[in-house]
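INTERNAL AUDIT FORM
Audit reference: QA-55
Scope: verify that the stored structure record matches its stored sequence.
Auditor: D.O.
Record contents follow.
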Amino acid sequence: MKDEIVQNCTKILYNTKDLQIVLGVGKNVAYKLMRSKNFPSIVIGGRYFVEVKTLEKWINQNAGSRIKI
C-alpha cells in the first residue's frame, strides 16, 4: 500500500540531491545554491528544498546569466 502511494505522488519539492541531478551539478554547488540569498529555497526542519515550479521559473528568469554563488 505504501509503495503504491509513493509511486502515485508527483514531487512538488526538490531536495539538494534532486537539485544535483536536475541541474547536473556537484554536491557542493547544489548546497551553496540552496543556501544562496538569490535562490528561492525553503528550509523545513533544517533541510533545504525548492519548489519544482519555482525552480523552473528561476531557471527561465536567469537564462543566459552567470550565477555566482
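Auditor finding: record pair retrieved intact. Residues 2-61 form a domain with the Arc Repressor Mutant, subunit A fold (CATH 1.10.10).
Action required: none
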